[in-house]
Design goal:
The chain is mainly α. The chain is built from 14 helices and no strands. It starts with a helix and ends with a helix.
Length: 279
C-alpha cells in the first residue's frame, strides 16, 4: 500500500509540474511564433500555427522603428541606473540602522514595514498622484525616478538577514581603529553585502523595467519620455492591436533581461539562499 501511494504521489507531482510548465511556456511560445509571421499569416492563422519562414525579420524592424525602441532603451537604462543605485543605498543603510542600533521604535518601524506590504499599492495611488501633481513631478523624468526610488520591503529584509550574519565585532574593530559609522558601513560592511546587493538589484531592476502602470500614469508625454514598458502601446488602437509587431517588440525588450539574468544567476541564487537562513 505504501509503495502504491508513493507511485500515485509521484505521478501527481510530475503531472502538476508538466501542467505548470505548459501554462508558463504557452504564452512565450505563442509570442515567438506570432513575432515571425507576416501580416497575411497573422490575419489568417491562429497563434499556434508555425510561420512559413523563421527568417522573416520585418516585424522586428518595424517594431524597433515605429516604437522608437532605441530611445525607450536609453530612457529605461537611465531610470534603472538611478533607481538601482538609490534603492540599494537607501535599503542597505536603513537595514544597517535597524540591525546595529537598538532604539525606541525599532520594532515599531519593522512592524510598520510589514503592515505596508498588506496595503495594495493601487489603493494609495489617488493620494500619491495628488502629492506628485502638487509638487510638479508629474510628466517629468526626475519625478518618476523619485517615485520609483521607494524601497521595497523585501529588499530591506534581504539586507537585514545579511546583516544578521555579519558579526558586530567588524563594526567595533573599525570604530576602534578610528572609523566613523559611515566609514564602517561603506568601507567594511557594504563590500561584504555583494550577494544581497546583486539579489536586490535584480528584483528591483526587473520590477522597474517591467513597470507599466506607473510609467503610463506619470510619464504622460510618450514622445518625450517613452520607456520600454510603454513603447509598444503605439501598436494598439480602436480598430484592434497589431500583435505581430507587439510580439516582435516583446522579444526585443526581453533580450537585455535575459542577458543580465544569465550573467548574474549565480549571485541571485546564492543571495536568495544565504539571505533566507539566519545565523
Amino acid at each position: 500500500m505504501n509503495k502504491g501511494k508513493k507511485i500515485v504521489v509521484n505521478v501527481l507531482k510530475y503531472v502538476l509540474l508538466v501542467f505548470a510548465a505548459f501554462v508558463a511556456l504557452v504564452p512565450i511560445v505563442s509570442c515567438v511564433i506570432t513575432a515571425f509571421k507576416n501580416v497575411e499569416e497573422y490575419q489568417t492563422t491562429n497563434v499556434m500555427v508555425l510561420p512559413k519562414s523563421w527568417l522573416y525579420f520585418d516585424n522586428f524592424i518595424t517594431a524597433w522603428k515605429q516604437a522608437d525602441l532605441g530611445s525607450a532603451f536609453l530612457h529605461s537604462f537611465l531610470i534603472l541606473i538611478c533607481v538601482l543605485v538609490g534603492s540599494v543605498l537607501i535599503s542597505a543603510m536603513l537595514a544597517y540602522v535597524l540591525n546595529r542600533f537598538q532604539f525606541t521604535g525599532n520594532t515599531l518601524i519593522r512592524n510598520l514595514f510589514m503592515v505596508a506590504t498588506l496595503i495594495p499599492g493601487i489603493a494609495s495611488q489617488v493620494t500619491v498622484y495628488q502629492i506628485m501633481d502638487s509638487l510638479g513631478l508629474v510628466n517629468t523624468m526626475h519625478g518618476y525616478i523619485i517615485l520609483m526610488l521607494g524601497t521595497d520591503v523585501i529588499t530591506i529584509y534581504i539586507f537585514l538577514q545579511f546583516f544578521e550574519n555579519l558579526p558586530v565585532t567588524l563594526d567595533e574593530s573599525a570604530i576602534i581603529d578610528g572609523c566613523s559609522y559611515f566609514g564602517a558601513f561603506f568601507r567594511i560592511l557594504f563590500p561584504l553585502l555583494k550577494p544581497a546587493i546583486v539579489t536586490s538589484a535584480i528584483l528591483k531592476g526587473v520590477s522597474t523595467y517591467n513597470e507599466y502602470y506607473m510609467a503610463g500614469l506619470y510619464l504622460q508625454d510618450k514622445t518625450r519620455f517613452n520607456v520600454v514598458s510603454t513603447s509598444l502601446y503605439v501598436f494598439t488602437g480602436p480598430m484592434g492591436s497589431q500583435y505581430n509587431y507587439i510580439c516582435a517588440g516583446v522579444l526585443i525588450t526581453i533580450i537585455p533581461a535575459l542577458i543580465i539574468f544569465h550573467l548574474c544567476q549565480d549571485q541571485i541564487y546564492s543571495g536568495m539562499a544565504a539571505g533566507a537562513v539566519k545565523g
